[in-house]
Amino acid sequence: MAFIDEETIKKIRSENDIVDVIGSYLPLVQKGKNYFAVCPFHDDHSPSMSISKDKQIYRCFVCGASGNVISFVRDYEKVSFQEALEILGKNVGIKINSEKKSNYSPYKEFYDIYNISKDYYKNNLNSKSGEKAREYLNKRKLDKSTLDYFDIGLSLNGGLANSLAKKHDKNKLIDIGLCNSELKDLFHNRIMFTIKDNDGNTVAFSGRKYEENNNEPKYINSKETVIFKKGTILYNLYNAKDYIRKKKEIIISEGFMEVIRLHTIGIDNSVALMGTSFTKEHLNIIKNLKCSVVLNLDQDEAGKTATISIGDTLVENGINPTVIIFSKYKDADELISNEGAEPFLKAYESRVSFIDFKLNYLKKNKDLTNAVDLSKYIKDSIDAINLVDDDILREIKIKELSKNYDLDEDIIRGKITNKNIKEIKQEVIKPKKKIKYNKYDVSELRLLYLMMNNPELILYYENNLGYMNNTDRRMLANEIVKFKNKNKTFDLGDFICYTMQSQELEKVYKEVMEYNNIDNYSMEEVDDYITRIKEQRVNKQIESLKEKMKNTIDIEEKKRLANKIENIKKEVLKW
After folding, report:
1. Does 75 share its domain with 26?
2. Which of 280, 317, 402, 553 could in theory staple to 409 by disulfide, Cβ–Cβ 3.0 to 4.6 A?
3. pLDDT at residue 449 above 70?
4. How deeply is 108 buried, as exposed, middle or buried, from its count of CB atoms within 10 A (0-12, 13-18, 19+)?
5. Do 404 and 479 belong together in one domain?
6. CATH of the domain at 160
7. How far lies 131's CA from each of 154, 210, 261, 386, 549, in Å?
8. 370-387, pLDDT tens digit by residue?
9. Residue 508 exposed, middle or buried by CB count within 10 Å (0-12, 13-18, 19+)
10. Burial category of 218 from C-beta neighbours within 10 Å (exposed 0-12, middle 13-18, buried 19 and up)
């Protein structure tokens, strides 16, 4: 994840009014000072989410979902913290700089190394040594703006690894796939395609040879590493996200060049598989984008087989894709390069439903004048129709099959069971079962809640208690104090942003907010919580001392421990 400074985060949050933003997603009803909406994070039937314009936070009184405008967009859109910031930043004209890497990422050094390598390759391409490669790319009709957009560069005869080794451990360079044990560059004399993860971090490269007079493989790719897993990445997704959301459509292509070529004709909602099969992670990405899917794979037999495989997976998960079909050329890159944009745009506009593509594909190698082949085709077609979860589309296909092959509709319909259709349910957070807390837990949860919602209690906590017995809650309390002391004030909306950048911190924050809290309090109540927390700590100390007494046979030691217990009890009486 990219590092984004606190001031930018604050500015984005402050300029995006939470009522306006949530109101753009959900209908709101105003009741007094607050607004209410049906909570999108559980199966809600009446408005249970409260949105405070004054505090710029929201909270559901049923499932406990809570946060600020950034966490709402993150959880509603199912995106990362950074992506939520980017969405909200665009709302108010604030651009996020995603080049500088996170200060807290465990892989910061790896991201830095790859970012330096990317710039190194780009500089090579623009240097005198890159003239021949530029000529090759020019012949491929790739101009400078396109090369810059996709961070395309050039590896030369070497030098990168030696340069990096001056500041970075050699073994790390080997581990992340930039050189071998002799410190020789993995990539040399190749056009370098930069591969970024879904958050925009450079994580790998694919190097294509541009001199055809050698016997080396056309492509050499980075190996999988801790920061590069092919099955979790869609090439160009980071650049394409906004276009996908705007158009509510994603085009899945087969390779880098198809995506790059589509960009040259103004199509920017395209991504590519990373030379791997369509994975569960890819499916989840598409589900989270909440968009229609267009399959734009190769037109050869392997591409058609892949189209069937991916299409079946999508249909089984409630997504009915369409398919781009054209003839003469193997892929969109070849078509556009040779014929220009118009033929591809026509193919795109006349794309077919996946079920039509599959029913036509099932005819392959079958003689439909032969009864055995025809029977097999009809059975396969019924199985394909059986997967479609759209009642109207399924009915249309039944009628077409009946008409085209003079079959009784009822016979076909009798074979349609929908048994293969997976039950598609809205992915929502189920209301959690209320945890039964003891009085000590309640004291810590309530005190933390009151501190976050009434900053004047933070100093009172510091002066009169200063600790929590539960490890996680102690961490949250310490961060509350630290945040307030650093900023000289405490704003809950800003603090929520702070917690969102740590899974551990956000987890305990949510635990506090999910407890059935109320804002009103009295100082007597606060003092009671402090007394209980102290009492629990004292009880634990006494239990520990008693256990030591039990396990020692030294009479003097037993007396010493007994005196210590009595002194602790006397101290308690002074409270």
Report:
1. yes
2. 402
3. yes
4. middle
5. no
6. 3.90.980.10
7. 10, 12, 22, 56, 83
8. 989 899 989 988 988 888
9. buried
10. exposed
